Recover the amino acids of this structure.
């Protein structure tokens, strides 16, 4: 059963515009959320994270928003650049679980076109 | 440069053969993990090890085996018992004392069963 869901397999955005990637989760025990970026034939690289005690975390062009009541988080990329084209994975961990035990969504392929 | 090295990058196997995927890290991380990625799927945890000579099964451990004889190394053996071994395999690690639940990934190994 998928506990972390990314319902949009792909997203296409023009360069300079905002990209919004969405993620939903079902486990109310999740208390830490991460976004990873992955290029083809490479391992995922950590992008940004947020703890459940916050509702927003910002790092440069990347902002993650968390809505605990809706069990929903989103990643905003502003402005989008062609180099942002990659697969983005949402991941979550719960407070009772082993360190490093993350639950991943299926990913969203972001394409940023000039 | 510190990082995680996975080898081989590409591997082909005939049905019924065991294969071992190598994972070496020079990050001085304590815990190491093996995740599997299938097309259109999120990453799923196979095995993990938090200290030398100790490891635990993840969600999809059947048909796999691991060892942790050294802190730096965590090889994964895909046995003939694994029914659908064709996948992209990712090794990851964490520095436990950091307290941050952020995995660092290697570049991955793609296994194809012929």
């Amino acid at each position: 059963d998928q506990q972390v869901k990314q319902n949009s397999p792909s997203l296409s955005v023009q360069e300079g515009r905002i990209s919004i990637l969405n993620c939903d989760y079902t486990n109310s025990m999740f208390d830490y959320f991460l976004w990873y970026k992955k290029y083809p034939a490479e391992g995922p690289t950590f992008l940004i994270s947020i703890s459940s005690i916050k509702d927003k975390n910002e790092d440069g062009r990347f902002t993650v928003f968390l809505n605990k009541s809706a069990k929903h988080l989103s990643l905003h990329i502003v402005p989008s650049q062609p180099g942002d084209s990659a697969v983005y994975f949402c991941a979550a961990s719960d407070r009772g679980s082993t360190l490093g035990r993350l639950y991943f969504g299926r990913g969203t392929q972001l394409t940023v076109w000039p | 440069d510190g990082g995680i090295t996975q080898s081989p990058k590409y591997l082909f196997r005939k049905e019924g053969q065991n294969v071992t995927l190598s994972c070496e890290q020079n990050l001085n991380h304590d815990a190491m993990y093996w995740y599997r990625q299938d097309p259109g799927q999120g990453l799923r945890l196979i095995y993990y090890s938090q200290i030398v000579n100790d490891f635990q099964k993840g969600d999809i451990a059947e048909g796999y085996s691991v060892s942790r004889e050294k802190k730096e190394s965590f090889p994964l053996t895909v046995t003939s018992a694994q029914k659908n071994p064709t996948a992209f395999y990712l090794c990851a690690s964490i520095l436990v004392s950091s307290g941050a639940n952020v995995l660092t990934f290697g570049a991955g190994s793609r296994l194809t069963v012929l």
Notes: The CA atoms of residues 10 and 109 of chain A lie 4 Å apart.
